[in-house]
Specification:
About 30% of the residues lie in helices and about 15% in strands. It is built from two helices and two strands. The protein is globular, with a radius of gyration of 14 Å. The model has no long low-confidence stretch (mean pLDDT about 90). α1 packs across α2. The chain has about 100 residues and is of the alpha+beta class.
Length: about 100
Amino acid sequence: MPHLVCFPKGESPQDLVARTSDALRFLLDKYAQKTVVLVGHDSVNKALLLQLIDQPLSAYWRLAQDLCAINEIGVEDWTIRVFRINETYHLASLS
């Protein structure tokens, strides 16, 4: 099961999801009804997305997170709406 692999001197996706869940709960509690922008690495983004879209850890490797991708998730009264995931259209003019 690749989602349980622990990289040398690193953490497993399982550990990453556990770590990011604390940060996510903090943000949702402290900044309810506010706009929050998070900037992170693909692994952290995947861990947060798994929680926000209520997917199992085994879906970790199925989520794509390209460089400079934008994910937009709305949370209102603990109702989660996905507006976009892994959007890179804004980069088209750079190529």
